[in-house]
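Have a think about this chain, tokens included, and walk me through the fold.
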Amino acid sequence: MRARFSLTEPFTIDAGTPSKMFEIQPMNAETFRRQTRRSTVIIALIFLALAMLLSTTAVALFGEPGGDNLRFNVGGVFIAVLLMAALMRGKFWSQEWMAPAVYGWRLKRSLMRVTNVMHQVTAAVEKDDPNAMKLLRFYHLGLNQMHELDGNSSDHSQLTREMEQHKARMEALGLDTEQTRLNPAWLEAVKQMPR
């Protein structure tokens, strides 16, 4: 089963399954940025409220009037951080209002998985290895989308050139260029190749 993402319908993921294939989904960059800003503001407000409530409660319960209560304030903030982490993974992660932020996080995480073995990928691409060719195509498509979603156009022309060259090479080898899914088997195959 694959994760689905839409800006108009609910989005669910299984964050506990790292071998699940990530799929690049088409989306409007402006809408994505607006929705991720909104979810960031919601999370920040919830964290601030928790931190203030827990710090105030800690000082009221354990502090001394007129004394140094810094450790209780810091303790309240620390507990708020732990509570927010638990809420993020347990409650907020699967909420519709968090879907764009979760998608962006999963996209960047998937790209990082490829980046971590990029030296092996590029070496295997030079040998026309099909798994490496598909992996690099996925990486190019994902990186291109990440730049669009983040509004980062500084390296876009260089990336576009590399994408087109690699796409043409794949077409010449008869490989499908629509590689919008990160198949974990490709990563494993590239990692197993002799260096």
Q: What stands out?
A: Helices lie at 29-62, 70-92, 99-115, 118-126, 130-150, 156-172, 184-192. Confidence is low (pLDDT under 50) at residues 1-19. Strands lie at 22-23, 181-182.
